[in-house]
Amino acid sequence: MGISGKDKAEYVQKTFNNIAKKYDLMNTLMSFGLDKKWRKKAVETAETRPGMKMIDICCGTAQLSLELAMAVGKEGKVQGLDFSENMLAKARENLANSSFRSIIELQQGDAMNLPYPDNFFDGATVGWGLRNLPDLEKGIREMIRVVKPGSMVVSLDMGKPTMPVFKQAYWLYFDKLVPLMGKIWTGKANAYQYLHDSSREFPPQWELARIFGECGLVEIKYQNLAGGVVAIVSGRKPR
Ligand SMILES: C[S@@+](CC[C@H](N)C(=O)[O-])C[C@H]1O[C@@H](n2cnc3c(N)ncnc32)[C@H](O)[C@@H]1O
């Protein structure tokens, strides 16, 4: 892809504005409907409990925010943040008929400079978001800054499978079919090529776990889902 900094942020924002309407459908198709289960697992890993105040960075169409809302319940709060107005518009549409809509507040903002005070939330999640940021470490440090000591910081994103044969079959599917499906079903070939390339370039789960540690988190873990095609990387802000 070869773009960085402000150029990358602008490109990413434009890309998600372009695919917002079909994003949820494509996600479900490409993950064979497993994305919901993966999000639930991320919410569990974030140790989300009733009454908590959680933040979901790069919330997009609010699918992960919704899973968080189910876990925090009526006494809790979920703050969703994203910089794409069209993804947020789709999120509002998704929430319109949901009984959880009063729990979720959506805000347009930049993950690189979160508009919240230090030590404010009881936990932070990010789903398929970190790889889009122009500075990965800065994004992780921002998540750490806004959560209270002892809280969990959790990323759910594409991983790198390691099992022989499965690994080769997966890369064949991912390298050839994913961009093609994006092109056919949404007509946005460039956008799906970007999603493909950004996943390829994103650090593998064990490397992201190491970066979490470097950024100051403790009790770092990674969990492979679907044979490592997707992974949850988590850590705790020291108490
Ligand atoms: C692949 S989508 C993930 C959406 C959602 N988390 C999910 O689980 O489906 C990535 C989202 O990150 C958002 N994003 C990327 N860079 C961002 C940034 N710097 N600040 C805020 N949002 C950002 C995009 O607008 C997009 O909605």
Topology at a glance:
Blueprint: H1 5-30, H2 35-45, E1 53-57, H3 63-72, E2 77-82, H4 85-96, E3 104-108, E4 121-127, H5 136-146, E5 147-158, H6 166-186, H7 189-201, H8 205-214, E6 218-225, E7 230-236
Parallel strand pairs: 1-2, 1-4, 2-3, 4-5
Antiparallel strand pairs: 5-7, 6-7
Helix pairs in contact: 1-4, 1-6, 2-3, 6-7
The structure holds S-adenosylmethionine.
Helix percent band: 40-55%
Give, in order, the helices and strands.
HHEHEHEEHEHHHEE
Please indicate the count of domains.
1
Tell me, what is the CATH class? Alpha Beta
Principal-axes shape call: globular
Mean pLDDT: 92
**Radius of gyration, whole Å:** 17 Å
Query: How is the biggest beta sheet arranged?
Result: 7 strands, mixed
**Helix count from the secondary structure assignment:** 8
CATH superfamily: Vaccinia Virus protein VP39
Bound molecules: S-adenosylmethionine
In percent, how much strand structure appears in the residues? 15-25%
The CATH architecture comes to 3-Layer(aba) Sandwich
Strand order of the largest sheet: 3-2-1-4-5-7-6
Query: Might you state the CATH topology name?
Result: Rossmann fold
Q: What are the segments in which pLDDT stays under 50 over at least 5 consecutive residues?
A: none
The CA-CA distance between the termini, in Å, is 39 Å
Q: Based on DSSP secondary structure assignment, what is the total number of beta strands?
A: 7
Class per helix and strand makeup: alpha/beta
Structure overview:
The chain has one domain: Rossmann fold (3-Layer(aba) Sandwich), CATH 3.40.50. Helix content is 48%, strand content 21%. The protein has 8 helices and 7 strands. Strands 3-2-1-4-5-7-6 form a 7-stranded mixed sheet, sandwiched between helices. A hairpin with a 4-residue loop joins β6 (218-225) and β7. α1 (5-30) crosses α6 (166-186). The protein is globular. The chain starts with a helix and ends with a strand. The model has no long low-confidence stretch (mean pLDDT 92). S-adenosylmethionine binds at residues 9, 12, 16, 27, 58-60, 63-64, 82-84, 87, 110-112, 127-129, 132-133.
